[in-house]
Amino acid sequence: MKNLRNTHANIDSATTDGAAGALTRRELMSGSVLGAAFLGGGVAPLMAQSGQTSGARQARRQGRRIIDGHVHLWVLPRDAPPMSDSATFPTGCCGSVPWMEMNRMPVDYDARVGGPKVDKVVLIESSVGVTADKIIQSNLWMLQTAAADGKILSVVGNLDLTQAPATFAQQVTQLAASKQFVGVRIGGGIFQANAAATVSNLRPNVMPNLTLMAKQGLEIDTLGIPGAALSQIGAAVPGANYCDGPFRRKGHGL
């Protein structure tokens, strides 16, 4: 099936515009020098085993594009322009991680091992601690960055799925005006506190907001949500598709 927008791949996938050209991240990592989720900084790359051809090199020989489906970008400090979203990531959330506490942009990715071998990347939100009044700015910065850099294929943002449906719809409409916006990342916060992760324990407004996203062909990338809960949500949300955790746009062909 044809894609509705630019192709998006999650952390476990890398793909071209159609399933026939897909190269999964698992395949790539099984014999590749590509390594880190956070732009490769300070993390030992996964190396090809002796006698194996690297996943990246093999993909090149087969004429397939390579897409890194999960990178984070930022400019510090995050309470000042250009980001101005006051996120606590990467400083303030994770202890002292010196190699993270500096600007990370596409040029830094390309300078890392494996970076030049990757054709496109998917930009994933890193809006830890961003308040409701600044969340749109956080998403807009990612979209502006993606629009200015041809290597960024698509953007997975962050919105509060527990907010009133009218407000959520307004925000989604604003962000989806960009074809590079493919959906939002969600976690266990969609469930009632101290309750099992099931459809019956979803917080108010989550179900109608998920339904709106499905109708608009948007996806959710999930973080720490059990597979059983995802199956329940997938069955309860009309038109929702999911694969390896996240819902997917219809026609992604993954």
Structure report:
The chain is α/β, with parallel strands linked by helices and 254 residues long. The chain is built from 7 helices and 5 strands. The protein has helices at residues 25-30, 55-61, 106-110, 135-148, 165-175, 206-215, 227-236, and strands at residues 67-71, 120-124, 152-157, 181-187, 219-223. Strands 1-2-3-4-5 form a 5-stranded parallel β-sheet, with helices on one face. Helix 3 (106-110) links the parallel strand 1 (67-71) and strand 2 (120-124). The radius of gyration is 18 Å and the shape is globular. The N and C termini lie close together (10 Å). Mean pLDDT is 77; it is low at 1-53 and 243-254.
